[in-house]
Design brief:
229 residues, alpha+beta, 31% helix, Aminopeptidase
Length: 229
């Protein structure tokens, strides 16, 4: 079993979450937004839950199952994340005017690697490259509190906009797997497949980013922190 790292405690309320927010800056070190860690406090924030549910319903094509997304199912999903504090984190993305515009997360966090997931912009506004810089900020955070050597990301090959962000950050393709969609109880579910049995044209693609590549590619992050990586 992979050894997990000790992550900072999840915030107990929204005030604490904002106090411990991660400031997102562009390469000129200008503040353009911030990330807020989700804890159980999110379960009483109906407006946030409704926004996230609406975004995820609109973006269902990017998920492994196409079950109906509602505020109730989204709340259950967020509750599951909030109560899995040892190996995953989920962050809300806010612009510089404190408008909620998206979310991003990390899962399967061990002492060696983890997976970036849930990158989604649900609302317009703020810096046009906010998601790109939010991803960089989240990666800088997890690298700075651990000795992870690699972060992976898995997304469908037809998710062109998200892939463009990941590749600009520095992720490179290492694996591509065919997919087959099945309908179970009226719900479409995607699974890995052989190339012969695949019934969709897109694939599940894994990209990886090494720690050393991240810091070489984004040297301005090191310059701001005044650290040697």
């Amino acid at each position: 079993m992979a050894t997990q790292i000790r992550l900072p405690s999840l915030p107990e309320n929204l005030r604490e979450a904002h106090k411990n927010r991660l400031i997102v800056k562009d390469k000129d070190l200008r503040s353009i937004g911030y990330l807020v860690a989700v804890g159980n406090w999110i379960l009483s924030e109906g407006v946030f839950i409704e926004s996230i549910a609406a975004w995820r319903k609109k973006s269902q094509a990017g998920f492994w199952d196409r079950a109906d997304v509602t505020p109730e199912t989204t709340k259950s999903y967020l509750e599951l994340i909030a109560n899995s504090p040892s190996n995953r984190r989920f962050f809300l993305i806010f612009d510089n005017f404190s408008n909620l515009v998206g979310h991003v997360g990390l899962k399967s966090i061990t002492h060696r690697e983890c997976e970036l997931d849930n990158l989604l912009r649900g609302a317009s506004g703020g810096h046009p490259s906010l998601l790109y810089y939010a991803e960089i900020r989240l990666l800088e955070w997890i690298f700075s509190i651990s000795r992870l050597s690699q972060v992976n990301v898995n997304c469908f090959s037809n998710n062109f906009l998200v892939i463009a962000i990941h590749e600009e950050v520095g992720f490179v393709l290492i694996e591509s797997t065919p997919l087959k969609v099945k309908t179970i109880d009226g719900i479409q579910i995607l699974n890995y497949s052989s190339r012969e049995d695949a019934n969709v044209t897109y694939t599940s693609d894994i990209r990886a980013l090494d720690r050393s590549v991240f810091y070489r590619r984004h040297a301005w992050v090191v310059a701001e922190k005044g650290e040697e990586k």
